[in-house]
Amino acid sequence: MIGFLRGILIGKAPPQLLLDVHGVGYEVEAPMTTFYDLPALGEEVKLHTHLVVREDAHILFGFASETERMLFRVLIKVNGVGPKLALTILSGQSVEEFYRCVHDNDVKALVRLPGVGQKTAERLIIEMRGRLPELSDTPQTKGQSGLGASLAASPKQEAVTALCALGYKPQDAAKMVQAIATEDKSCEDIIRLALRGSIK
User: Fold this and answer.
1) Element (DSSP H or E) covering residue 11
2) What's the average model confidence in pLDDT over 57-78?
3) 187 and 14 Cβ atoms separated by less than 8 Å
4) With 70 as the cut, is the pLDDT of residue 140 above it?
5) How far apart (Å, rounded) are the C-alpha atoms in residues 94 and 100?
6) Among the ranges given (8-17, 132-141, 168-177), the one the predictor scored with the smallest mean pLDDT
């Protein structure tokens, strides 16, 4: 179907972004690990994509690296893991961190992710262990991204909204953001620190 998109980044509201590809605006959902690696608004970006077709919607998911997309595709094959939960897992952990959880049988780290219960975490480790060799390519290095803040909301407010979209309860998302010194930090930096703090 749609293997990748290359266009101008014109909007972002985690986990969604808007890409202008030759005059056509594509709405794409992406994990926070991809948001961290995005260029500034108005610049060109290339995303590896995966299209999920449902009866009521066609949803396009975008990833900064082929490795992230491959992991996403394997995750959604696990019983009980849909695209939204797969996106949450990729937002809460890097590919390398997920590999470590699987190899080390670290159920506790997976359970800390929103929407991942004990049984799901155990199933992920069992089913993913045999599939990880397929994902042995070295993931792209993620860089810091100095994205412009949205005019509609402060970076702090955007971060809370994004965490809610990833499955956290509003009160928990607010507490996670409140625990961070948010002054002079972008939305992506706040989300990154909040997610790191939640899985310690």
Assistant:
1) strand 4-13
2) 90
3) yes
4) no
5) 10
6) 132-141
> How far, in Å, are 33, 53, 59 from residue 56 at the CA level?
27, 8, 10
Whether the ω angle into residue 31 lies within 30 degrees of 0, i.e. cis, is no
Backbone dihedral region of 41: left (phi > 0), alpha (psi from -120 to 50 degrees) or beta? Answer: beta
CB atoms within 10 A of CB 105: 13
The mean of the pLDDT values for the chain is 82
Domain spanning 4-63: CATH superfamily: Nucleic acid-binding proteins (2.40.50.140)
The residue with greater pLDDT, 72 or 187, is: 72
Q: Which CATH architecture has domain 66-135?
A: Orthogonal Bundle (1.10)
Q: What is the CA radius of gyration of the chain?
A: 16
C-alpha closest to that of 28 among 44, 13, 41: 13
In the chain, the amino acid numbered 87 is L
pLDDT of residue 171: 75
Burial class (CB in 10 A: 0-12, 13-18, 19+), 155: buried
State the architecture of 155-198 in CATH terms: Orthogonal Bundle (1.10)
Nearest to 113 by CA among 194, 16, 15, 17: 194
The residue extents of the domains of the chain are: 4-63, 66-135, 155-198
pLDDT higher at 170 or 177: 177
